[in-house]
Specification:
mainly alpha, single chain
Length: about 120
Amino acid sequence: MGLFIVLSILPFFPFFLVYWGMYVWKKDKRNAMRMAMDVTTFFLIFSVSALFNLTFDSNFGFYLTLLLILLALGFIGGAQNRLKGKVDGGRMFRAVWRMAFVIMSFGYILFTLFGLFRYFMKQM
């Protein structure tokens, strides 16, 4: 449990560890980047949820994150159904998962900077 907490607090560590490990093993930067993004998204979800809870004094962060992911799955699934007449679940999940990586990375940076700013303002 302690390792999970450390990796969730500092989600860039699992990114670099997985990227380095996959690159050394497969010698393919593109696959290493994809695998690192996929693994890091899992840790970012918990990290951004916790930062949201700390920033807004709430307990809703994890549920909001899950709700947004489920909504994105619904929207992309609906778009696939309208365009192609069928839903490719694997492709839909990969698209949402990688989109979540980008959004959660931005959220992690934003909430961290906001938290630091708030901390320093309380110290003055």
